[in-house]
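Progress report, Aim 2. The chain analyzed during this reporting quarter is listed below.
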Amino acid sequence: MAFNFIRAAAAGAAITLCATGGAYAAVNLPALKIDKTQTTVSGLSAGGFMAVQLHVAYSATFAKGVGVVAGGPFYCAEGSVVNATGRCMASPAGIPTSTLVSTTNTWASQGAIDPVANLQNSKVYLFSGTLDSAVKTGVMDALRTYYSSFVPAANVVYKKDIAAEHAMVTDDYGNGCTTKAAPYISNCNFDLAGAMLQHLYGPLNARNNAALPTGNFIEFNQSEFISNHGMATTGWAYVPQACQAGGSATCKLHVVLHGCKQNISDVQQQYVRNTGYNRWADTNSIVMLYPQTSTAATNSCFDWWGYDNANYAKKSGPQMVAIKAMVDRVSSGGTTNPPVDLPAPTGVSTSGATASSMAIAWNAVSGAASYNVYRNANKVNALPVTATNYSDTGLAASTTYSWTVRAADASGAEGAASAAASGTTLVAQGGGGTCTTASNYAHTVAGRAYVYGGYTFALGSNQSMGLWNIFVNNTLKQTSPNYYVIGTCP
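Predicted structure tokens for the chain:
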């Protein structure tokens, strides 16, 4: 399951759903009353790596804690698919934990991620099955070592005594505990979701073992927060009755991140409904948010090695920004701040195009404390912009984009959006890209391609290059960071 190189077959799995109900049109994610100090995140496999990224990069938001099942240290892959499939899955002795800690501290000092001091009071729950053949227990050991630089030992629980294969573990649903197959949920007679949530939040009310209200499941419009970047057009949430919009209860929020080959297209609603989280949510006023990747993502994985964006682990990573925006939306129902009355910025313009960047400028807005810049309706700045210009980087060559700008007050609340300004990036160096001709083996070692089932695929475009060996040669053209196509340069 978990990554592009695991060969488990997802097709043909029998689907058993609890109270699936009828078909509902996607709605906008509601704004609910959420205690923002009680926001946590967890994930399995690729979702586990992503949960660590969110916990560390947005530590001010997820300061309460994180649960990780078969994941690994922050920035483990360091932008390389070779590292991802090697040391971060199969060969944990090669994980440079001290370097990753140093990178974390450096990025925090630069503002690329939140201050590491936010992690000092976090709770961390770690789980590794002793039979996990996809992400070896040594990788989780490295994650435990990584967190020891930021989180007190007393705040960490590490469970690794169950003979489980690579899966989300439950006490009553899924495959046999030693099986590695879709939907990658296994009945090991252990309530992992419950153990995790009780460590993160402390003592909880007993879970609801009856059928959950179908109407509490929400399919929401995820494209409101991100377009493409490997993310689906809709996501899912479970909202307990006490937490419904208009209610008086103030609730907690837990973000749940699926592994590879576990989104709605791959396993239908099994991960959303049958992993055990919702039964605890229902009796403890915890809203469950289930962001979803699309099948356009590499093996349906969240981006934890840079297949979509070089800044994937920073606050500015597109998937990171989107999930943080979902959290902000669902947590905004309890605000008593009056509506922001800041006018839309005027004079928005683009200039200075390169093959991978564009300069955006606008006129100052009276009363504004900062500004936010949106590219194709997705926010691109990780930190508030206090100047009246911004350099947007990491763009694809020869591509037209549209930018808008919003002014924000001292609390971060935004005013109206500006009129859009468009611009087109230049052709990449070499008449459309930088080309490299080499064997499929060499392309993979250099991080320009990856291997799945003995075959080689171009990084980013996922184009098939043939067998993985030193005898098959291909020319790869890099058209943007971490994106290669089979082709030639003039």
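Residues 430-486 form one domain. The first helix runs from residue 46 to 57. These observations will guide the mutagenesis work planned for the next reporting period.
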